[in-house]
Amino acid sequence: MESVRIGIVGMGNMGSSHARYLRQGDISRCTLTAVCDTISERIEPFRNTDIKTYTDSKELIRSGEVDAVLIATPHYDHTTIGIDAFEQGLHVLVEKPISVHKADCERLISAYEAAGDRIFGAMFQMRTEPVYQRIKALIDNGELGDIQRTSWIVTSWFRSNIYYASGGCRATWKGEGGGVLLNQCPHNLDLFQWFCGMPTKVRAFCGFGKYHPIEVEDEVTAYFEYPNGATGTFVTSTGEAPGSDRLEIAGDRGRLLYENGKLTFIRNEIRTSDYTKTTTEPFGRPPVWHVDIPITGPRGGHAVITQNFVDAILDGKPVLAPAVEGIHSIEIANAMLYSAITDTTVELPLDGVAYEAHLKKLIAESTFKKDTVDAPGPSSDMAKSFR
Predict the structure, then answer these.
(1) Which of 14, 183, 189, 274 sees the fewest Cβ atoms within 10 Å?
(2) Are 68 and 326 contacting, i.e. CB atoms less than 8 angstroms apart?
């Protein structure tokens, strides 16, 4: 194979965006040969072109027109379409999240593993941004020492009522399986676990429809515990403006802070653990260096992930964002929701089947009607009814 023929399934906002750079030739050794959407108007611009159009993903997958599919459908469909593609021998690149819940992630990953030598990538393009690659390198190289505390406040995901009204599946248990955690924060949660690993315990508090007329979470405050005794917090919201984006990781060799486009490292000259044991100063503390970390390198983005996906297929290059790792951010999101809904601390690994059953119960018992954009958000009693 000298070039990859790719088909996009799902031509909403993200699918259309991927189609633009593919049609412009931004990805080398790759051709957009097919598009698919159940809403025929979305594929109308591609009719009477050399790009095949479909309204059924099964037809596209079996058409013989594609070597790989890029899945940009509503979340629940990622699993079924991905499994079908693997069973037909195709490579798969999936938008975030790879699935709605852990049990579906496991089903999709099992299909990938059974497919043999197929490539399975996830559209976690934030991993390609220079600043996050630099943070990852500093941690992996041991510059922070043993991580003691993590904190990410990301409340810059503000959304209005009209945003939630613009999509029929948006912000419902049945349509997306969650709110800010499943729609806006998969990237942040992916990076958080990429940097710091998986927690062992999660305690979360969620506002369900706190700021918008939706039934799912639009505010989250969570506490994590890690295997080495480190602790962490994660705060997010779509109802706060102007919002904040502040990532802080503290280790016994210093503290890393990323905020307002600036990465700062306050580095201890002596490890905290060593200083504590050896100092004769009762109120002393390790001397530090203040270092502004330069952020250099080409910008990342969706096209970078797609080019890497093509290179992995043709050249065997390592996948920048392996989709099998996408289960981690989903497990954390599921655990936060489960903790808030049941008012308990959740231990990881999460029981994916139990969470799936609970999610199905939420869907079955939901009485929410998504036709009141101007109405106030669900009351606290409604939020309690989701437990």
Answers:
(1) 274
(2) no
